[in-house]
Amino acid sequence: MLASVVIEYSVKSLNKVFDYIIPNELKSIIKIGHKVIVPFASKEVEGFVLNIHNNKDNNIEYRSIIKIQDSDFYLNSELLELGKYMSNSLLCNLISCYQIMLPKALKASIKTNINKKYEIKASLNKEVDVDKYIEEHKRRVKEIEIINLLKEKELLKKDISSPSLNNLIKEGIVILNKYEVNREVFVEKENDKTINLTEEQSTAVNEILNSKDSKFLLYGVTGSGKTEVYIELIRKCLMNNKTAIVLVPEISLTPQIVSRFKNVFGDNVAVFHSSLSEGEKYDEYRRIMKGEVSLVVGARSAIFSPLKNIGLIILDECQSQTYKQESTPKYSAIDIAYKRGEYNNAKVVLGSATPALEEYARGKKGVLHLVELTKRISGKLPNIELVDMEIEAKKHNYIISEKLDIEINKALASKHQVILLLNRRGYSTFLSCTNCGFVYKCPNCDISLIYHKSSNSYSCHYCGYRCERNDVCPKCHEQAIKDLGLGTEKLESLIEKKYNTKVLRMDADTTSTKNAHQKLIKEFSSGNYNILVGTQMISKGLNFENVSLVGIINPDSLLSIPDFRSAERTYELLSQTSGRVGRFDLDGKVIIQTYNKDNYVYKSVLKNDFNSFFNYEMNIRKKLKYPPYYYICNILVTSSDFKVAGESANKVKKFLDSKLESEYIVIGPSVSNIVKLNNKYRFNIMIKYKNKDNLYKVLNELNNIVIKNVNIDININI
Fold first, then answer.
1. What's the pTM?
2. Contacts from 466-474 at CB under 8 Å and sequence distance 24+?
3. What are the backbone angles phi and psi of residue 672, rounded to the nearest 5°?
4. N or C terminus of the chain: which is more exposed, having fewer CB within 10 Å?
């Protein structure tokens, strides 16, 4: 008997399946989808069984499978098919698609051993007369206490561990039993809330449930109660003995939404996101595989949960960039959700207050079934004001405007809380010598270093390079290095000093430890802090009842990013952050500080008018041939040598021009926004297209071209 195995191997073009003999001791155990250890060349490598057959070729000398890596684990037939679809559509190796579906402990290239967790319990030996033992050993008081406790129930050994217990075990009175247990994922419990749907919410639920369509866009203004709609849809799904997946874009959203779902669905919920330990992921994954849960909540990778009979997939805040994987395979969780929806005949619901323009356009056209929630539960939209920072700068108010200062003081005087958004972490955004103009840059990347006061170090947010602070300029040797620009760490310090109040910071630096998101959210919710300073992670999905004011510092930096989606992402961030106020009984006010107050993005946010922004932006997209009117494929050419990277990019451009018809628009090559990253020089080529048939054929050819010391990276549908 043979097994066809796709293996992990460090050759880009190797995407083949190899046959191996199944040893007799594995024949009754092995399954299609199992992860196995096999010999390849002079090494032992890992791979997945794709087929089991008897088609032996007598002219071939087969080698044998060494062992099954984990007999409890295997990819089911749906995930195996999904991997093949991903490999074909994303132009990447099959093994990389299977690896992305697994927690780290189960990936083929990882040697980490995550052991099952056990607990030891003590119980009385039923074959022994314990009452006789008590009668004969009346003076052993502590032993008798333990026996009486164990008469009532089995107890954890660690809770009663003592010399007396050890003696009882030695005498055969007490026996120890070993039980496998799951590592419990910590979830902060919320107060139970009775869910009474509004008329608009009930209409939305019924529209989705009763429609024959399978793909939906739930467009609801911030605070309109999309989560309550999700809960009701899930309830109906589980009542029909089907399973469900809920995706959220940010780990920071997971604690609150998981808490909501745990309150409603109890232990029938599994949690899956990157801040869990490898052991917790392993246990949660096995719970899902065993069918112990019907609902999985998590970030992007939870879309690969091995649930069976899926009836519903929900992607909350569907516009988020985090649903697109940046490393190979560069999949979109939305595309994978659609594919799993087709396989399971399930409904897929995308939810957002600021959907991606492509998705909203599809909703308008009927490609997606558009369901709308137009009213807030509180009935109140926030009052939004723009502050002209050109005028403020003349008053030397460079960070906090006069208007925002007044509103912060009002909120604090009323015992209300404040949220301040600054989408830049660190203390200062660049370091420069005031004597000669030298700027500290990352030696690996073409980017200035960020100063972090908490660690007193300069660091690169792209490659992780870090060095200790030194105020002496390495160029002119004067002690003249000054930290300039503004990050969340500096803003926190300034606000704390200015208002003499407790300030909490929430960014990638303060949320890097386990359960940090939950702890920070709890701290602010409980009123232990008056002002929350944070990056974009505080903009979505969070509910704080006592927040009456949001201040947005320097949103102009988002608009200046050279990306055709910069306006869309600025609108999304401003609108979502504005939505953190006015959700409950308090009136909400939002202050947006800008040097560009006449920009159409700010005007649309000011009116809470997504449709006017959508129409304006779509007109620009149509003229410039951007999505949704055209699809986009980006090709990144990188090399450690700038000249080699540039010359290779020109070769790729010529290859594309010779293979693609005139209907395909090929732009470039041009240097990337960040010319050098991780010691690699980067050139971009963009292809705009409507028909992908010939494009895929050409890209497959390109993918198989090997240029020495050059990497060609293809990203489809960016």
1. 0.85
2. 473/433, 473/435, 473/436, 473/438, 474/438
3. -70, 165
4. N
Mean pLDDT calculated for residue range 40-67: 91
The answer to whether 301 and 686 have CB atoms below 8 angstroms apart is no
CATH classification of 199-373, choosing from 3.40.630.10, 3.30.1050.10, 3.40.50.300, 3.40.50.1260? 3.40.50.300
- Amino acid 584: pLDDT: 80
Class of domain 383-425+486-621: alpha beta
Q: Which of 91, 93, 94 is nearest to 81 (CA)?
A: 94
Q: Which of 605, 587, 608, 585 is nearest to 596 (CA)?
A: 605
User: Would you say 297 and 259 are in contact if contact means Cβ atoms under 8 Å apart?
Assistant: no
329 cis-preceded (ω within 30 degrees of 0): yes
> What pLDDT is recorded for position 110?
45
Residue type, 494: L
* Predicted confidence (pLDDT) per residue in 185-207, tens digit: 655 555 556 678 999 999 999 99
> Quick one: pLDDT at residue 216?
98
Residue 46 in contact with residue 4, Cβ under 8 Å?
no
Report pLDDT for 183: 63
CATH class, domain 631-716, is alpha beta
Q: What is the mean pLDDT of residues 245-259?
A: 78
What pLDDT does residue 539 have? 85
Domain 2-106 has CATH 3.40.1440.60: yes
User: Comparing C-alpha atoms, which of 98, 91, 87, 95 is closest to residue 714?
Assistant: 91
Please work out, in degrees rounded to the nearest 5, the angle formed at the alpha carbon of residue 658 by the alpha carbons of 652 and 660.
Answer: 95
Total Cβ atoms within 10 A of residue 429: 18
Task: Give which of 128, 122, 127, 126 is closest to 145, Cα–Cα.
Answer: 122
> Rounded to whole angstroms, what are the CA distances from 434 to 441, 456, 602?
16, 20, 35
According to DSSP, the residues that pair with 37 across neighbouring strands are 46, 67
Domain ranges of the chain: 2-106, 117-181, 199-373, 383-425+486-621, 430-484, 631-716
* Strand bridging mode 631-639 / 589-594: unpaired
What confidence tens digit (pLDDT) does each residue in 579-622 have?
888 878 788 999 999 999 999 999 999 998 999 999 999 999 99
Which helix (H) or strand (E) segment holds residue 47: the answer is strand 43-53
Q: List Cα–Cα distances, 462 to 29, 273, 450, in angstroms.
A: 45, 22, 11
